[in-house]
Amino acid sequence: MHAWPASEVPALPGQGRDLRIHDTATGGLVTLQPGPVARIYVCGITPYDATHMGHAATYNAFDLVQRVWLDTKRQVHYVQNVTDVDDPLLERAQRDHVDWVKLAEQETALFREDMTALRMLPPKHYIGAVEAIPGIVPLVERLRDLGAAYELDGDVYFSVESDPHFGEVSHLDAAAMRLLSAERGGDPDRPGKKNPLDPVLWMAAREGEPSWDGGSLGRGRPGWHIECVAIALDHLGMGFDVQGGGSDLAFPHHEMGASHAQVLTGEFPMAKAYVHAGMVALDGEKMSKSKGNLVFVSRLRRDGVDPAAIRLALLAHHYRSDWEWTDQVLQDAVARLGRWRSAVSRPDGPSADALVEEIREALAEDLNTPAALAAVDRWVALQQERGGTDTGAPGLVSRAVDALLGVAV
Question: How far is CA 353 from CA 70, 138, 311, 394, in A?
Answer without folding.
Answer: 19, 53, 24, 11
